[in-house]
Amino acid sequence: MYCVRNITEDLYWVGGNDRRLALFENIHPIEKGVSYNSYLLLDKKTVLFDTVDWSICRQFLENIQAVLGDRPLDYMVINHMEPDHAACIEEIILRYPDVKIICTEKAFMFMNQFGFHIDGKVMKVKEGDTMSFGKHNVVFVSAPMVHWPEAMVTYDATDGVLFSADAFGSFRSLDGKLFNDEVNFDRDWIDEARRYYTNIVGKYGPHVQALLKKASTIDIKIICPLHGLVWRNNFGYLLGKYDKWSRYEPEEKGVMIVYGTMYGNTEAAANDLATRLAKKGMTNIVMYDVSKTHVSYLISETFKYSHVVLASVTYNLKIYPPMLNYIMDMKALNVQKRTFGLIENGSWAPQSDKLMRELLNEMKDITVLDNEISVNSSMKEQDVDSMESLADSIIESMK
Ligand code: FEO
């Protein structure tokens, strides 16, 4: 059975949801599912904007068939070639053999790399090229590294619709609701939107800034991303979040404490710090066990808070492996502009403070507080002064 929704009078959402997939990109858990959005325009010409992941191809084809009826499909605009959107290109060609593909030169190269049979079907476009499908006039705008180098977005100037590719997307299935004003975004969606952005596109902040700059010059009435909700109002909220994330500015003054503990002693030290902070009035505190929290959640929260405390046991004379993985992911995603505090633990030859400090100091615009807290196996009275001092330093650095 087809399942589609109108966005405007002649534009339809023809995508679908995957609630079965455990790991997006085979890395990121998606307990709440994900949507793959595709859009179909019925103008003088018919135009499909991107395809979907292979997992929902059957639903997608039924949707297209239902909206097109007896009309042929004239064009397929491919804004992004990652297979979660491009997997069904050949299937569309098989069913609509006269379709022309509109894409960038790099997307064409990727189609060949992925082994697609597209000979004679591709119309290459570049930054600023325009095209009319009848009533609708579109302009193609390159958006390299948001999130792959071939990416572009397409702006329909007639209705003010921005087909934004991965930009402004989110994890989470749509569950019948398609528009941002059909959900309580700040309550139910923001965490999954942030986790999507930070882990998928987070590395490319300057490229997102470049796209936001271009977006500020056009009159946007609707944003149609490839995942998550379609936005038709409250753009200031969404663009504000993207602006913060892509500048690597924290959303909130607060402390995220991430601890790596084997037998609970490092966790106890982390609890002690959290309690001291709260007693001093800094109550915006979250705590995560690095071993049981998937790193994609840690990254998302790192983008949210201004301060991060890493409390790590020493393991094989190195940083505890799950903590090392988290730090390396922060580095890979270009986390910047944060203040870090450190707590190390070790029963003999504790090393994790020194090693974490070295890695953090390689990151851009990072402050690592001077306080050194070296717990020997378990926190004791003799550690109280230094823990108190770390709490004071954190609060002082927030002023
Ligand atoms: Fe949802 Fe970069 O693909």
Automatic annotation (TrEMBL):
Domain of life of the source: Bacteria
Family annotation (InterPro entries): Flavodoxin/NO_synth, Flavodoxin_CS, Flavoprotein-like_sf, Metallo-B-lactamas, NADH_oxidoreductase_modular, ODP_dom, RibonucZ/Hydroxyglut_hydro, Rubredoxin-O_OxRdtase
EC number annotated for this UniProt entry: 1.-.-.-
Named cofactor requirement(s): Fe cation
Top class in the EC scheme: oxidoreductase
Keywords, ordered alphabetically: Electron transport, Oxidoreductase, Transport
UniProt feature coiled coil, ranges: none
UniProt domain Flavodoxin-like: residue ranges: 255-395
UniProt GO molecular function: electron transfer activity; FMN binding; metal ion binding; oxidoreductase activity, acting on NAD(P)H
Protein family (similarity comment): In the N-terminal section; belongs to the zinc metallo-hydrolase group 3 family.
Stored PANTHER family: DIFLAVIN FLAVOPROTEIN A 2-RELATED (PTHR32145), FLAVOPROTEIN (PTHR32145:SF20)
Name under which the protein is recorded: Nitric oxide reductase
